[in-house]
Each structure stands twice: as structure tokens, then as C-alpha cells.
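Reopening closed ticket. The problem is back. First fold of the pair:
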Amino acid sequence: MCSRARPFLAAILLQFGYAGLAVISKFALNKGMSPHVLVVYRHAVATVVIAPFAIVLDRKARPKMTLSTFFKISLLALLEPTIDQNLFYTGMKYTSATFTFAMSNVLPAFVFLMAWLLRIERVKIRSLHSQAKIMGTVVTVGGAMLMTLVKGPTIDFPWTKVSDHQQSAATSTMEHPIEGAILIAVGCFCWAAFVILQAITLKSYPTELSLTALICLMGTIEGTVVALVIEKGNPSVWSIHFDYSLLACLYGGVICSGLGYYIQGVIMKKKGPVFVTAFSPLSMVIVTIMGSFLLAEIMCLGRIIGAIVIVLGLYSVLWGKSKDETPSTPGISEAELSVDLHHQQQMAKMSSGVGSLNEDSIDV
């Protein structure tokens, strides 16, 4: 029972880590930190922290690096650490932390569609659980569109009644919701491709720590090139102070990039890529609560309804996924299997003993 619960607990802890990063990163971006520089520093920290563990712990199990594996790692670093996170942080700067993570809930839908097309995910159109996965995917995308296009009346909470200056600052972050939503959606598509490619790469390079360290290293290099091009002629953006910008780099590097990629890989080897991303609504709920309290983010009825629709659609996908995981020998417990195996071994010993007695009697 404990073994079965580990993937669920790990996935839940992963979403708590992502939720904490959303609030910390939003503070840093509001203070003027460049999202492109944040991506570089985050993965540089992750590389420094994870690489020593990968070198020591994977020294005997690490497979030989091939040209195909190197290409996959370079593509992984381009998809998630470079493209996705640059779009993700830029979209967050245009909108809010709550809106960003609500839009990110289209990630499981993208992962499911890609896994279906690549035949990683089993889908039988006539079965109820496969229909639930398909309908859940459609409902999830519809909820994301509802959340983006429909605003509705503002909902005031006692803790969001702040000064006019803070209210105008919070409102100004939602001046570009459409542009931010497009950036976040494209980033989620790249993130979904990253998850699928990570699952494929782990089959030929099954050391999660080493793969994580290499992804972060390549992500640092590729992200630096992108940041130098975008922030050309503005060297002041690379300065880091002892404030939320430093905390965002350290937290994002250690928790979300280092441990996050590693834990994601471990879960993926047992449960598959769809299971890993099916817990995204949990981070949205956490970010909504924390963003409302700490960032005084404005809540609108349309976004709340859209978020609820997203959650319903995603857990329809999760329910259908759970029905796919049927045991290989239904109705037989592990204890019964061990007893049956022991009985077969005893019968084999008895038959071999009888055979040796018969041979001795023939010799006599």
C-alpha cells in the first residue's frame, strides 16, 4: 500500500513546489527582474546542485553517451528550460500567477494527445474510460478558453482590499491577458513535448540524476544564448541582489528544476507521462489561495468558473487513466502467488528426487 501511494505523494509534493515558485517568481518579476535572466540563473543553480550527486551516485549505472542521446538531451533543454520557461515567465509578467497556472492546466491535455498519437497511451474508443479521457481533454481546453476570454464580475475578498496604489499595480498586470495566454499556451505545448521526450529518453538513458544534470547544463547554455540576444545592450539585468530575485533563482533551481525533473522522471518510469501531469490542478488551487493572500490578485467569476471546468475535465482524464492500470493477474493476491510459487518449487524438488531414486534402482 505504501509502495502504491509513493507516486501519488511525489506528484502532490511536486505541485506544491511549483506553486511556491509561482508566487516567488511573480514577486521577482514585479520588482523588474528579466524573465530570461531568471531562466538562466535558475538552471545554473540546478546544475551546480544536482551534478555532484549525479557524478557520484550514477558512476556505475550511467550508460554510454551516444550521438542520439546527446541530441535528445539538447532538444529536451531547448523545449522546457529554454523555450517553455521563457514564454512561461513572460506570460506571467503580462498576467498574474493565478492566471498563469490556471492556463497551464492545458498541459495534461497536450500530453495526453501526444501520447495518444505516439501510441504511448492506450485508447479504445468504445471503452468508457477511454471516452472519459477524450472528453476530459476537450473539456480542459474549453475551460482554458473560457478562463481566457470571459472575465465576469470581480469577486472581492476581505484580504484583497488594499490601497489604491496596490490595487492599480495588481490590475496593471492583467493588461495583456490575450498575449499572455498565447505565450503560456505555446509554452505548455513545449512542456508537453518535453514530458513525452523525457519518457522516451529514459528508456535508453535510465539514470534520472544524470539526465537531470545534463538537461539543466544544456538549458543553462541555450538559455544564456537566448537571454544575450533578447537583453542585448542591457547588462544591468544580469545583476542579482539579496531579495526575491535571488530567492527565485535558488528556489526554482533546487526545487523545481533539480528535484522537479528528477522526481518527474522517477514517477514517469512507473506511471507514465500522463499520470505525471494529471495533478496540475492542485498547483492551481494552491497558487490561487497564495496569490489572493500574498499578491492581492483580483479574482473574477469567469476565471473561477473556467478553473472549475478545467479541474473537472482533468480529473475525468485521471479517472480514465486509473482504469487502464489493471493488474496483470486480477483476483489473486501477492500472498497467494507466493504460496503457489513455493508449492511449485516443492513439487519440482519431489519430482527430481523421485527421478534420481528411479535411476539408482535401475543401476542396481
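Second fold of the pair, where the issue appears:
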Amino acid sequence: MSSELQPKLPVLDFSSENLKPGTSSWESACKEVRLALEDYGCFVLVYNKVPSDLRNGVFGALEELFDLPTETKMRNKYEKPLNGYVGQIPKLPLHESMGIDNATTQEGTQSFTNLMWPNGNDNFCARLHSYAKLAAELDDMVSRMIHESYGVEKYYDSHKGSTTYLLRVLKNRVPQGNEPNIAFVTHTDKSFSTILHQNQVNGLEVETKDGNWINVEFSPSSFVVIAGDALMAWSNDRILSPSHRVTMNGKETRYSLGLFSFSNGIVQVPEELVDDEHPLQYKPFDHTGLLHFFRTDEGYKSKCPIKAYCGV
């Protein structure tokens, strides 16, 4: 299949100085975001305002972090779902990751840094905190656009007020010998939304509605925005939560960061998104409860955990 025929994710540019609420460029971006999430569940967000020293500094900091001894990294414990160390898994030998809870706050990043470096590491802390704040600003912009595009902006402030963030940092190494090249299994995100960024090494693949897989390529100034199961439920199935995976085919280690947004309250479908064409699909649900449910046998084995958890 020639590369011209390969499906590609929509690419939306958020770099313009004029992209402000109330402007015509904002309104057209709102529509493009909604269509991309309805059609693909994700899109590439170009944002060339990330200072290159921050970008380089963050990936340098990740190399330093993953070079720590395994027993140090394992101090990053699962206090709640999704936020602990994952690695040393025989079936997924290429994958290692850690979670920094509340990385958008100074306390959150500092607490993780102190765990890894009891004598401190100010550089690491400052870089990861700056990065998390920047990614959260992008997430907030996308969230506002989604609310406005569906005409439910009156719920945006309460959504924003209940949002918490988890920053997962990931390392995928190159397969050796006859190791499989799958670095992370096919899954959907359990978040409301996810903002992904990577070093220059590709590996992310996203499944389309018709079952094809897109190899996602994104430039150093780009992010990938992915809708999670909670956003799919909130939108009453208008937005797709896409299946995705990571495969390693190159010769270089892939470092990436995923900022996951969660609601610390009850998520429910806005009444404006329920009509004859879109009858109600989900009962109001506790987002943290969904994460706990997913870690049970029933949740893990169900084809669509969010439907098993709170489907009508």
C-alpha cells in the first residue's frame, strides 16, 4: 500500500497568536477539533511555541530518570490506579513508565522528584513541572473548544474545576534478538483526554473506525490529542475513544510523555447531547470508580469497560 493511500490523522495548528475565544479562527478551530474527535478520536496538534531548550531539557531529564536503578524507579507506587511504575514485564519487555500525580502543581512534581532523588534534583523538577503546565494549557484549550462546539460551554467552568492531571513518562527501547516489537498493547485511554508528546522516534499507531491502523508521525513541535473513554461517555458516543498501541521498528529508544486528564467528580452526559438521534447511552459515573473498575477482572476483560461500568 503506497504511503499516499495510508490514512493520516487530521493536523490542526494551534500556533496562531489570533487563536482566542470569540474570534473567527477560534470558532473554525472548535469545529475542526470536534470533527477530528468524532471521526478519529484524536488529532495531531501543531504548537510551535514550545521553547526548544524546554523540549530538549525534558527529554534529557527523562533519560536521566530511566537510567536510575530499577529499585529506585519502583518507589513510584500505585497509590491510585494508573499512577505507579510499570516495567520488567516479560510479555512487554520494551516498556517502562512512571506516573507523576498532579504534575501541574509544584508540590506534585517535587514529591515525585524527592522520591527518585532524596538529595533533590532541581533541574528535573523544574523541567517536568514547566512541561506539565504547558501540556495542561493545551488540554484546557481543547476542552473549552469541545464544550463550545457542542453548545454546552455553560458546563465548561465546572468541568475545568474538577479536572486533575496525571503525567505518565514512558520509555520504549528497541527490541533485541527475537523480542516482539510490540512496546505497548492495544488499549483505549480511561482518561477524559490525553496529550501526548515524544522525542523524534515514532511508534504510536491508532486504529480507525473501519479497522485500519494509522502510523502516527508527528514533528518535534507537535502533540497528539486522544479522546479517552470518559470523554466518549460525556459526549454520549459522539466522540470516539480510539484503540491505539505502540510498536518499535527503528533503532532508537523512544521517550514520550502523556498528560492524562481526569475528573475528580461525577461525569454525566449534558442533557443537550441527548435527543432522538442520540438516546442516552451512559448513566452519571464516578471517574475514579471507572479506573478502579478497569483493574478488576470484569473491567479488564470487558470489550468496552466504560459501557460495562456505566452504560444504560
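Update: turned out to be a display glitch only; the data is intact. The radius of gyration is 19 Å. The domain at 3-310 is CATH 2.60.120.330 (Jelly Rolls). Please close again.
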